[in-house]
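Per your request, structure below.
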């Protein structure tokens, strides 16, 4: 461990699945076009509530919302937002790196290399995740580069 550095480790309940694996299950095992609409509503409600907590109370942007970072308990359908490694408190005066977030879920202002953005980048990513659930696991904005 580096001297002088502080690390924060969060220990949470065990969640055996990710949203990515749930989408894959419905696409491959159940041979359905998408995640059932009721589950989409349940998952999106929980994701948006978690973002409301981060954004509203603390002005913290997660900056890496994607199906792999959404843990699921299949017994209760409880969703947990994980991987806070890219999270940052957003202030209006401070610059932030634009090359953040997974490309498929990156908001337009990030694609255009803006270094001043808000917590809204998470809402864009949440919408992309919802679309992916409804599109049988197919990414909404797939591209090999920012220009794509």
């Amino acid at each position: 461990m580096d001297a002088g550095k502080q690390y924060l480790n969060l220990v949470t309940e065990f969640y055996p699945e990710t949203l990515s694996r749930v989408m894959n299950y419905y696409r491959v095992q159940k041979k359905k076009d998408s995640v059932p609409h009721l589950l989409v509503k349940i998952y999106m409600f929980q994701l948006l509530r978690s973002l409301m907590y981060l954004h509203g109370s603390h002005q913290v942007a997660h900056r890496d919302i994607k199906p792999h970072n959404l843990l699921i308990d299949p017994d209760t359908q409880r969703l947990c937002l994980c991987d806070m490694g890219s999270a940052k408190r957003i202030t209006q005066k401070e610059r932030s790196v634009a090359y953040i977030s997974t490309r498929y879920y990156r908001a337009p202002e990030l694609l255009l290399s803006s270094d001043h953005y808000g917590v809204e980048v998470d809402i864009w990513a949440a919408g992309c995740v919802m679309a992916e659930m409804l599109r049988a696991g197919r990414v909404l904005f797939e591209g090999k580069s920012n220009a794509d």
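The helical segments are 19-29, 37-58, 108-111, 120-134.

Regards,
D.
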